[in-house]
Amino acid sequence: MGKTITEQTGNKRILGTLCVVITSVCYGLVPSFSFLSFGMGVSTPTLLFDKFLYAAIIMWAFIFIRRIRFRFSKKAALYMAFSCIGYIGLSTCLYISFDYISGSLATIVSFTFPAMIVAIEMIFKLEPVKLTKILAVILSFVGLVLIVWDPDMKANVIGIAFAFGSAVCYVVYILGISTKTLKAESTFAIAGYVMLGAAIFNFFRCLISGEPLFTSTPGQFGMMILLSVVCVFIAILCYAIGVQMIGPGNAALLNTLEPVLACIFGHFIIGDVLTKIMLVGSALVVAAVFITNLPDKR
Question: Could you tell me which residues come within 8 angstroms of residue 4 by beta carbon, excluding any fewer than 6 positions away?
């Protein structure tokens, strides 16, 4: 006998949850894989160019094989350019912050962006003011203060500033892709254009800085493949599948695992130092993200 509707729904929910968890794992590995690459001698411009170039090639191959529509209207293309600038800004700021602070710390600080979006929505009256949203903004701010002003660890102000800048750019990126115009387009097509735009930007960045475009050793190339395949393509693919199966709200809630996993991977893979006050601040930021993504009761 075939499976009942309840069993099918349950299996779909489990599979969708698993896909989003895999996405969080993939994104959580970004700081650790990046620092391992730096240890092998890969510069930031080279890493970003290779990472986005290989990811773009894979993504566009997927788009053409699956015959996904990728032609946008002029209005959609304008929003796409806006989002692309935001994504380039967030990736650039995040990786610059890696030069000054740990990857896990930078990831936590960058995850203040949901609270920023909530604050903007309330200030401009795009969304109703709610106590839960105010609480999320306060928790995120207090958590950030605890992380930055931890007396047991000298956090570099420049690194914190760039990590915070990546959060601001993330807001620009999210506001762009959240428009009704781009919501109607394919997630994969949007990702393809974003990856391509980021690769082109870092191509010129390599030329200006004098850094090589490509890595020179098999080990370095292997890390670039891991970053592009695991941390970009698989992450985006699994998240898109997960959203289809469990909905965007539940997917966003599960994705709050990303900064937690970044800290865990950073500690065990590359030896990031996490103090007690940093952990408390991190927990507050994650709690703020969790509250921000709670679905409204209908």
Answer: none
